[in-house]
Task: structure prediction
Amino acid sequence: MSATAMETEELSVREAIEQVIAQEMERDESVFLQGIDVAGRGGEADLGPMLTERFGEERVRNTPISEVAIVGTGLGAAATGMRPIVEVMYSGFLGVPGDQILNQVAKMRYMFGGKLDIPLTIRTHNTMGHRAGAQHSQSLHNWMAAIPGIKVVTVSTPRDTAGLLRSAIRSNDPVIVFEHSGIYNRTGEVPVDPDFTLPIGQAGVEREGSDVTVVATQVQLWNALEAAEEVADDGIDVEVVSPRTFSPLDVDTIVESVRKTGRCVVVDETPLRMGSQGDIAAEVTEEAFFDLDFPVQRVGVPNVPVPFSPPLEDEVVPGTEDILEHIRMLA
Result:
């Protein structure tokens, strides 16, 4: 059955996460979930008590407030045959188990010559625009994507949340899944099929167009789609591409779009200095230089901590108006 013919249901991103975890725990007894307040409350995504009630606290496990313990025991479980899903509450807290992620999670399969599977899924979430202060308002998928040996996923819609999270759980390699506090309540159609997956490393064209390519993910994907609808009234046809995964990055899909439009804007909530925007812009420039009518434009966060002050945070975090400005600049 083709993807377009699949039976679907409308779910929020939060509901898609809960459903996939439940289905994978039902399918495979080696799958379990652990993290801070995941039993009962449902962790930082507020998944609710369903998973705990259905599978019990042996498989939905509350941990101490220690990211080192959460990731370390998850790694040990993965190396010895389990398939853990571990939650690190905020992406800004990934620095706490940083040594384990950099030197153990990412390297162990390689150091054993591929003979040892590490089927570890680390769920965390980016948070900007929610008045949470600098330590809780960071997007660090670019950090993790710079580490060889780890797959890095950024989910944006209910459909790709379901497809990519399920692929992560079933992967024999470690995968970090970046959710976002700003998308948990977003809704959309999700295939009912409990085996629906999306390949890790395959971007998606969320809106087809012919004049400007906008590459965007998570909240910025929704902002880009809104901007595309607004400029459509002015006769500007925008194509919106969601990378979906940053490691591996699907350069081919992005470049194919840019070759068609000749113009590219890359939007991401990582800082502009050493951010994901620059890496994607470099790939596009190397692969499609003679197809570009203008230099690739970058939209992101200035190289400052995210302020707690609402007006200052709004100034720092990109929004629809920033994307509109760059689209109109190129068109």
Summary: The chain has a mean pLDDT of 95.
